[in-house]
Write a structure and sequence with these properties.
three-stranded antiparallel beta sheet, transmembrane helix, alpha+beta, DUF3176, 18 helices, elongated, about 30% helix, membrane, 3 domains, transmembrane, nine-stranded antiparallel beta sheet
């Protein structure tokens, strides 16, 4: 009897047939291929290769008597065709092929989550101290991990979509196999994407994926560059507060009455003293013998200020961290000022070998030799402000000095005396109040004077009840309300200095800033005599006299000249390149000593160097742009694939093997490959992505050029 067999294919059964044993020969159906080892004769029949295994099945042609339903109606060889339902299922992709977009959608969600998380973290961390971040990995590492996740997932999704575009592209338009290859290469990385852009001339939105693939190369470097660290000084709460010295009352030195003397009085006619007008005044006082001992610390500060060229002594402060600031604060201080009074000089000339002493002159001629003068500089102390030219209104003056200096060219014998320029300068030191802005940066102290005042409170430094209190008013007029020292016995209240309220507001001083300051009589009665002695010589041994400019109280002048260099201070004043700076340095040294030795301090703020996380937001632009382009390309690809009713084959190799070139196109390319012209042949071949009864397949057009 005839046997009935079922041929099994890879995915379906195509035919049921019966093998006829009569004659040992069958006719090959047109739709079937000849098995390996079989041969066809001229009539279309094929013969079995006896060398093949005996279980091989030989196919026969389907007789016309076989009906459509595949039922066998006779005993002759019968064949049956598979049902239409089986044929339809062959064309429609099975749901188990896993050709869907769920993987791409999932990883794009992961990509977006990574980008959003990175952005939120950057917003949160921007400007915060690095010490606030306590995660087990560094902030840079965390951002790098998120950037890597975003980049990797985005690259995967873009690659899948570029792979899908080789199907979409040929489904929409005929094109060459080279384009198919270009999309396949683009799905594998940046180099293929570059050549895809070149071949398509970047004229289609399908190239968005290629652009995105190239831009992904800068994704992670830009994310790494987003973060940098900035060091800032921040106020902290230390255990030891930063402190800086200040003073609102100065009481130094020792002023002791040893013995009282006799009473002494004198009549001062109207208009004879310091330009006073009004009635004649009588001054009477009990004279005394005093012991005055100046503060050694302040005396040392005066010497350091004038004798050394070192930077000004800083006020004492405490700053543990090396970075501290203090609010603007006020303190009792010593100030200085210098003015050029050269326009007040008078020039005298005379003849003879010995014209005697010329009063009010700087230099005395000797023997008529005009190139040999004795002194190069002369300086004179002025204790009373009325004796000065430019400080007559300075009622807190400690002392003033008038200085006449011949230019160095004369001392170097480069000029004759009558050609030499003489410069006159008047400098003063006085009690004042300063507003300071102080800070320590990296262990180095910096300080600026915001403003300075020397406003004496009217009525301060008045006589207390005592033996001469009734005469103090006239005596104060006699000395022009200066702080000049006399031997009269007076017991005085503190000298007071005040910062006007409107000035404090104008300079934005703190509400708790001290505005009233006191200086005791002990301070004035001991400090001023020391300064007076500092600026004069023990005796006048020179043939020179000082141009007094109205001087009424005699003090020994200082000189610096050819035969005698004078005192150290005279040498310093002559050699000073800038008298204003010299006196300012001395005043600052005295002020800092006063502040450092006071029992008052100002508390400040300690600052520490803290690293802050900073974000370069412009660097975020590229990663965000890449993600937006990538998301757009992925979802546009999904939409386009759905519109074309194509399966999501993407980069599936099995799909490529199954639905790629038809037999004719492959044969043409194989023949061209044997001659080394496969790519040239591929460029001239036009493919259509067609759907026939067997499913989708790339087919070469009939009019394609042949080899």
């Amino acid at each position: 009897m005839p046997s009935q067999l079922l041929l099994e294919g890879e995915s379906r059964a195509e035919l049921l047939y019966l093998q006829d044993y009569q004659g040992g020969q069958t006719t090959r159906p047109p739709s079937l291929s000849v098995l390996e080892g079989d041969s066809l004769d001229e009539e279309g029949a094929y013969h079995s290769d006896s060398t093949l295994p005996q279980h091989r099945i030989k196919r026969k042609p389907v007789p016309s008597s076989l009906n459509e339903s595949g039922s066998n109606q006779s005993s002759s060889p019968q064949y049956a065709r598979v049902s239409d339902e089986s044929s339809i299922s062959e064309k429609t992709p099975s749901s188990t092929d896993n050709h869907s977009w769920w993987m791409e959608i999932s990883i794009m969600v992961v990509c977006l989550l990574a980008v959003v998380t990175s952005t939120v973290l950057l917003f949160y961390a921007d400007g915060r101290p690095l010490t606030d971040y306590n995660f087990f990995v560094s902030f840079n590492t965390l951002i790098s991990i998120l950037a890597t996740v975003a980049r990797a997932t985005l690259a995967f999704a873009i690659g899948s979509c570029l792979g899908q575009w080789k199907w979409n592209w040929l489904r929409k338009r005929p094109d060459t196999p080279v384009v198919f290859e270009s999309f396949e290469d683009a799905s594998r990385g940046p180099m293929g994407s570059f050549w895809l852009l070149y071949r398509l001339r970047a004229c289609h939105w399908a190239t968005i994926g290629a652009y995105t693939t190239l831009l992904i190369l800068g994704f992670e470097p830009f994310m790494q560059a987003v973060i940098y660290y900035e060091g800032l000084l921040e106020t902290t709460q230390p255990q030891t507060a930063p402190l800086i010295g200040t003073s609102n009352r100065l009481d130094i030195g020792s002023y002791t009455l040893l013995a009282e003397g006799s009473s002494y009085g004198w009549l001062i006619p109207n208009g004879t003293v310091y330009g006073m007008t009004g009635e004649n005044i009588t001054v009477s006082s009990v004279m005394g013998k005093f012991r005055r001992e100046a503060s050694g610390g302040l005396a040392s500060a005066i010497y350091r200020g004038f004798y050394t060229n070192d930077p000004r002594d800083a006020v004492s402060f405490t700053c543990v961290s090396g970075n501290c600031t203090w609010p603007i604060h006020t303190s009792l201080s010593v100030c200085s000022s210098c003015n050029d009074i050269s326009d007040q000089l008078k020039v005298y000339g005379h003849n003879g070998t010995d014209a005697g002493t010329l009063n009010d002159s700087l230099l005395q001629e000797t023997g008529g030799n005009e190139t040999d003068r004795e002194a190069y500089m002369s300086a004179k102390l002025l204790a009373n402000r009325w004796d000065t030219l430019t400080f007559t209104e300075l009622d807190t003056m400690i002392a003033a000095v008038s200085i006449l200096r011949a230019e160095p060219a004369y001392a170097n014998h480069e000029k004759r005396w009558n050609e030499t320029l003489v410069v006159a300068t008047e400098c003063a030191v006085y009690f004042c109040t300063n507003a300071y802005r102080s800070e320590v940066r990296a262990g180095i102290f910096h300080e600026d004077i915001v403003a300075s005042w020397s406003n004496r409170v009217p009525g301060s430094y008045s006589s207390k009840p005592g033996p001469n209190s009734a005469f103090w008013g006239n005596y104060s007029k006699f000395i022009n309300h200066s702080l000049t020292i006399r031997e009269a016995i007076f017991y005085l209240d503190d000298l007071q200095l005040q910062i006007p309220k409107e000035e404090a507001d104008r300079h934005k001083l703190p509400d708790d800033a001290t505005l009233l300051f006191n200086i005791s009589q002990n301070t004035t009665e001991t400090t001023l005599p020391f300064v007076y002695g500092f600026f004069q010589e023990p005796a006048s041994l020179k043939e020179l006299e000082f141009f007094g400019l109205g001087q009424t109280t005699s003090y020994n002048p200082m000189h610096y000249g050819k035969s005698d260099s004078g005192t150290i201070i005279a040498h310093k004043l002559y050699k000073s390149a800038n008298l204003t700076e010299t006196f300012a340095r001395a005043a600052a040294t005295m002020s800092n000593w006063i502040r450092s030795n006071s029992n008052l301090t100002i508390a400040g703020n300690q600052q520490e160097w803290v690293l802050h996380i900073r974000v370069r937001w412009p660097c975020v632009t590229l990663p965000v742009l890449v993600v937006l382009l990538g998301c757009s390309f992925v979802f546009l690809t999904m939409w386009e694939t759905r519109r074309l009713r194509l399966p999501a084959w993407k980069t599936d190799v099995l799909a490529t093997l199954t639905h790629s070139l038809d037999t004719g196109a492959r044969e043409k390319l194989r023949e061209a490959s044997l001659r080394g012209r496969m790519r040239e042949r591929a460029k001239g071949m036009i493919l259509n992505f067609e759907d026939d009864e067997k499913g989708l397949e790339l087919k070469a057009q009939d009019d394609s050029p042949s080899e």
